[in-house]
Amino acid sequence: MSLDKTPTSDQIKRVPKALLHDHLDGGLRPETIIELAQQIGYKKLPTDDPKKLADWFEESCNSHSLVRYLETFSHTIAVMQSKEAIIRVSRECAIDLARDGVVYAEVRGAPELFTEQGLTLDQVVEATLEGYKQGMAEAASEGNKIRVESLLCGMRQNNRSQEAAVAVVKYREKGVVGFDIAGPEDGFPPTNQLETFEYLRKENAHFTVHAGEAYGLPSIWEAIQICGAERLGHGVRIIDDIDFSGDKPKLGPLASYVRDRRIPLELCPTSNLQTGAAKTYSDHPIGMLAKLRFRVTLNTDNRLMSRTSMSNEMSECVKSFGWKFADLQRVTVNALKSSFIPFEERLEIIEKVVKPAYAAISAE
């Protein structure tokens, strides 16, 4: 079967991709940051040279510290405080993803971060959705069809998650498909936001939770068993509940629960290397978790900070784990099955877009 073949770089670029974990304020074009900074008189950028700025973001994030990694966002957030800037960044996000072969993306952002200069939470959400709409239209005119949906985040260290959750329900039919909490895990357990998760469940709203990235199994357990997360943002530390000392890997009770319940893992390997979850790509747990048939999805997290793309992540998995077309298709189908859009719409993208394209490209 052609799906058993190893894809070339060109084929990886062309296969359809689905993305569940990508931060809007972590994916700006360096040129855009510089232009927006100049427009508002923001003087704190380390350089005005786009290539050097891209280098700076990547180097700052290679610190193996999630806290230091998160500090780099002060610059991107600073230049996204107007409706025009948010529309531009969202529009360019959709275009850039589509050019990389992404056909479906859920892009997340915390609206509260963009209200420092007077925008309301609703204005931030509406500007973001307008940007995606423009970007999808522009991508289509370039011959790259993409569907971008929005996830709204609350920040763990702040107390505004409920506002974001209310906006998720308010804009549910208008381009917002779910909720997430982001920010530093250690010291800010997801149970601090329990009332918000209970509100979302009562409203039949979808949500994912950042868990098991920098902090271990307790974070994952709380996210699932107390908060009711449908997906795990990262979830990479589930590997800590698997015993590899014997002939066959032995799953602990939490790892078994996550696998048996098909709880999706929004894995972001390059980002994890930067924050210290693994030393090299080939050491990253995604290879073993995929072999053990967890519901693995492949994601970018922050394309600017990690200097990555979905094509890059796929290429690294092919190189590090010997993945074939079948493996790339599986993580793509996993992502679509785990998305927050209605079931029949997920199925349509899988059956009409993903599978025919993989069959055609792998048969070349």
Task: Please tag this protein with its features.
364 residues; single chain; 4-stranded parallel β-sheet; TIM Barrel; 10 strands; 16 helices; alpha/beta
Give the beta-strand count.
10
Say what the CATH topology is: TIM Barrel
SS-derived structural category: alpha/beta
Main pleated sheet: 4 strands, parallel
Count of helical regions: 16
CATH superfamily: Metal-dependent hydrolases
Radius of gyration: 19 Å
The CATH C-level class name: Alpha Beta
Calculate the mean pLDDT score and round it.
95
**Overall body shape:** globular
N- to C-terminal separation? 12 Å
The share of residues in helices is: 40-55%
Strand line-up across the major sheet? 1-2-3-4
Helix and strand run: HEHHHHHEHEHEHEHEEEHEHHEHHH
**Low-confidence region ranges:** none
Domain count, please report it. Answer: 1
Query: What fraction strand?
Result: 5-15%
Going by CATH, the architecture would be: Alpha-Beta Barrel
